Amino acid sequence: MVKVRAARPAEAEDLTGLVMRSKAHWGYDAAFLAACAPELRIRAGDVTARRVVVAENGRGEVVGVASLEGTPPRAELGLLFVEPSAVGQGVGRLLYRDVLRRAVELGVRRLVIDSDPHATGFYRAMGAVPVAEPAASAASPAAPAAEAGGTALVRFEAAPVPLADWARAWTGGGRAVHLGNVGEFNAQFADATLDREQRPAHHYACLAAFYSPYPAALVLPRPVPRGWTELVCRQLGWTGVEVYDGLLDADPGLAEAVRARPALAALLTGSGLPLVPWGRTRAFGRLAGRPWRDGELRYESKSAAHGLFGRILADGGHPGIVLPRQWRVDGRWAAARMLAARTRAGENTVLKSEHGVGGSGTTVLTPARVRAAGGARAVLRRLPRGPLLVEEYVGGAASRGDEGPRDLTYDGFVDEAGRAHEVGGAVMEVADGCYRGATVGPGVVPGWAERSLIAFGAAVGRELADSGYRGWFDVDFVADGTGRLAPTETNLRLTGPSIAFMVAARLDALRGAGHLVRIADRVELGARLPEAQLDELCAALARGCAELGAVFVPAIPTGAFEPAPWLGVLVAARGREVLDAAEAWVRAEALAVGAMFGPS
Predict the structure, then answer these.
(1) Helices (H), 158-213
(2) Residues 451, 320: contact at Cβ < 8 Å?
(3) DSSP for 146-193, written as a single string
(4) Beta strand 110-115 with 74-82: parallel, antiparallel or unpaired?
(5) Kind and range of the H or E element at 52?
(6) CA quadruple 264, 269, 273, 278: dihedral sign
(7) Above pLDDT 70, what percent of the chain?
(8) Could you tell me the sign of the dihedral formed by the alpha carbons of 446, 451, 454, 460, in that order?
(9) How far is CA 425 from the centre of its chain?
(10) Distance separating alpha carbons of residues 161 and 514, to the nearest angstrom
(11) How far apart are CA 209 and CA 219, in angstroms?
(12) Which of 233, 331, 389, 496 is the most exposed place for a label (fewest CB within 10 A)?
């Protein structure tokens, strides 16, 4: 195991030798190396002045060196050299991340890197951004490598930032134990729209890897590929993550499955770390030693949430928000009569179940669609059983004259002290009423929507806190044709967008500020692959995205073993163009795996 420690003045001569061996690794000739030697030398007095650290392997051998030079708010990565025998073993990555961490502690907000041309791929992969400013000259002591053969150094910059305030508040600034109890959460509502076998829920339990920016342990109902967890840890800079999987065969009660293993329950609950579930349940309360509050999840009901929205709007102060009308109907035939009347009037209609996940139980009906189905009664016969809500359809954004987002969401949480915290807004991808993914990051939510979304989401958070709810929540919106937002539901649990927020917070702290993160719930695979080949595919997708300037993280691997195989993925980049290109490339490569088996 490689670790980073402060360099010692007595090591200066040996560290100079390491630097020169590392420089020679790129094939520079002896004359050029001799010319560089005076500027690459590390003197005993430099060790403290230049904030020099070393990477040391398990045998106590120094295998890398790095320095952080200058004064806040601007500093330089003066040295970053790896022993040639250790290249490709993650030493450079470890040193670079340590430099960013120390830069944050010092208050540095602009880290300048003058890269040897051979190292540009490394710095891009680490999240540094190329800039147009001229790089340091060959004689600059701050340059990790000098010009060679007329090839100029390449200047990069990074923007070191601490972990976001909301992320520190979420888990107290430290690591957490993540409990993937998606099926358990869904099952407590006993809604006919939810899959009794909870098969999709157990796939989505894989998102437990991302319930906070840095987990200590994952507790999962089904077995997951070891290669998946190793790649996720590598991409997000995690170490020491324990995985407890395969705890359930069919029953969705993950918290009870943990309690049935007293040693495991004691290990997880006695660690002193926060225990973070997908959502609160009575069984989780017993595991965590947290009293269950009757009614704390009442606003998970779509009709209760609608009532909450109405009460907030009745107080005024939210001119950018419009609430669609909603009716709770007594029985299916009453719903059919209302749907038929709205169809005759040429009105679009939304039918909703009280509870549903990812759009399950929500159906958008145009008059043409109702007629094509054979009328309102025929439509109702095809829907899942259970209570129904009839809701006014909110028209789209076309009349604004732009291609702006249609579906948006606000994420926040209420801590145990009852304080509501804002996380931010996101844009969702929704197809035919079903959630498909989301994008978070700076500038994602358009300016015309941001203020209204944040203000209304914060108001919902305060109401939830007053009602006794504690935990994560979101508020989903659709945009109408006049620049207003219509709130449609609350989710009192973690969500797909929340996963993207967690990963964005981690990447910003790990690689510098400004990441856009997109979670795509379903990326179709062209063929089912054995586990080893799936690992190879994901590793190849990670390498390919890095070449594009993006980060790939597999989010849901277990869907790859279904008869119709798929993956859930996360893609991150600092610009929308790169993000879109990386997602398109990932989708194309995932589909292309079927080609290796020949034409169908």
Answers:
(1) 165-171, 182-187, 199-204
(2) yes
(3) --BTTBPPEEEEE---PPPHHHHHHHTTS-EEEE--HHHHHHTT--TT
(4) parallel
(5) strand 52-56
(6) positive
(7) 92
(8) negative
(9) 13
(10) 10
(11) 9
(12) 331
Q: Are strands 407-414 and 388-392 parallel, antiparallel or unpaired?
A: unpaired
Sign, CA torsion 209/210/216/218: negative
CB atoms within 10 A of CB 497: 28
In the β-sheet with 215-219, what is the strand arrangement from edge to edge?
242-244, 215-219, 176-179, 275-277
Q: Which pair of tokens denotes residue 500?
A: 């993207």
pLDDT value at 462 more than 60: yes
Tell me if 444 sits within 8 A of 425, measured CB to CB. yes
421-458 pLDDT, tens digit per residue, is 999 999 999 887 788 999 999 999 999 999 999 999 99
The whole-number pLDDT of residue 132 equals 81
Sheet holding 349-353, edge to edge: 326-328, 388-392, 349-353, 362-365
**Per-residue confidence (pLDDT) for residue 38, from 0 to 100:** 92
Tokens linked to 575: 């610009």
Residue 119 has phi, psi (to 5 degrees) of -100, 5
Please identify which residue in the block is written with the tokens 């759009």.
359
370, 350 in Cβ contact below 8 A?
A: no
Q: Which residues contact 257 (CB under 8 A, 6 or more apart)?
A: 221, 247, 248, 251
In whole angstroms, what separates CA 566 from the centre of its chain?
A: 18
CB atoms closer than 10 angstroms to residue 572: 28
Long-range contacts of 286-294 (CB under 8 A, 24+ apart): 286/255, 286/259, 287/179, 287/255, 287/256, 287/258, 287/259, 293/468, 293/469, 293/470
d(CA 503, CA 71): 30
pTM: 0.92
**205 touches 182 (CB < 8 A):** yes
Using pLDDT thresholds of 50, 70 and 90, give the confidence band for residue 515: very high
Looking at 292-397, list the stretches that DSSP marks H as alpha helix, in order from N- to C-terminal side. Answer: 302-314, 332-344, 367-372, 376-382
Q: Is the peptide bond before 223 cis (omega within 30 degrees of 0)?
A: no
Of the pLDDT bands very low, low, confident and very high (cuts 50, 70, 90), residue 137 is: very low
DSSP-derived 3-state class of residue 230: helix
Task: Assign 63 to helix, strand or coil.
Answer: strand
CA dihedral 230, 234, 239, 245 (to 10 degrees): -30
Tokens 């034409």 sit at which residue?
599
Cα angle for residues 419, 422, 424 (degrees, 5° grid) = 165
Handedness of CA 522, 526, 531, 536 (dihedral sign): negative
Binning pLDDT at 50, 70 and 90, where does residue 145 land? very low
Q: Give the pairing of strands 516-524 and 434-440.
A: antiparallel
- Please name every residue paired with 327 in a beta bridge, in sequence order, or none if there are none: 390
Q: Which of 492, 495, 496 is nearest to 301 (CA)?
A: 492
